[in-house]
Amino acid sequence: MDNAIGSYQKITFPAFRNPTLDTLELGRKKHHIPVLLDMDVTVALQSIRDWKAHTGEKLSFTAWAMKCIAQAVSEHTHIQAMRKGTKSLILFNDVDISVIVERSVGDRKKPLETLPMPYIVRKANEKSVSEIHHEIRAAQALAFTPGEVQLGAHQNVRLIRAFASLPKFLRNLLVWRRLTRDPFFAKRTMGTLVVTSVVSSAHGNGYSWAIPMGIHPVAFALGNIAKNQVLSVRRSRFENTSA
Question: In a designed cystine with 80, which of 11, 29, 192, 229 is the match (CB 3.0 to 4.6 A)?
Fold first, then answer.
């Protein structure tokens, strides 16, 4: 054994990760305009607390953010336009948001594991915050099929496994080329935009940023919520008096 290298293990790269690498590679080829925003969500959090106080229901901040994004995009549909051919753009009226849902897999005999899986909230612009919240919670409770790659899509697991095992040029020929050229196929498969989030290790006392890379026309990455010190200056009016 070479002491400079030390001990190691050699394992097989999982084929089901190939489509993920394909997506990242396609994303690098797209034109991106990254924007970092710092927004005051004090009123939003208070509204969520007020809703819980009135109804007893705790809404997720992600559902609130998705509703805001869907509403804004529905008022400016050109943002999620997809190109068809060289002379046309398809502007969808529906805002279909692809979001990562944390799934717990396993049973009582085995420890539960968390598995992130994509799920598409259709027509998010027509749904309330509560409806989006409940749909995501319902997606987390959907029956899980071993090897499933997308919740609620009813995709053929064997077919997906076979596709992931194909050579790269065949995967590109069968799916990725069509996905980038056929906006209707793309909308059915991945929605019109994606919302993801990052987890910060700062325990709410620091910032976390992310610049998502993918093949959706629009991608949002939500960072953590941090408390900031705000200096409030109160203006006083002085009246001059004369004796």
Answer: 192
User: Domain of 189?
Assistant: 79-224
* Within-domain flag for 67: no
Which residues sit opposite 115 in a β-bridge? 103
User: Contact 77/90 with Cβ under 8 angstroms?
Assistant: no
Give the global pTM.
0.76
pLDDT confidence of residue 201: 47
- In a domain, residue 48? The reply is no
Element (H, E) at 116: strand 113-121
pLDDT of residue 167: 87
Rounded to the nearest 10 degrees, what angle do helices 18-29 and 157-165 cross at?
60
Residue 239: which residues within 8 A CB-CB, separation 6 or more? none
Is residue 106 in a domain? yes
Is the predicted pLDDT of residue 23 greater than 50, yes or no?
yes
What's the pLDDT score for residue 235?
Answer: 54
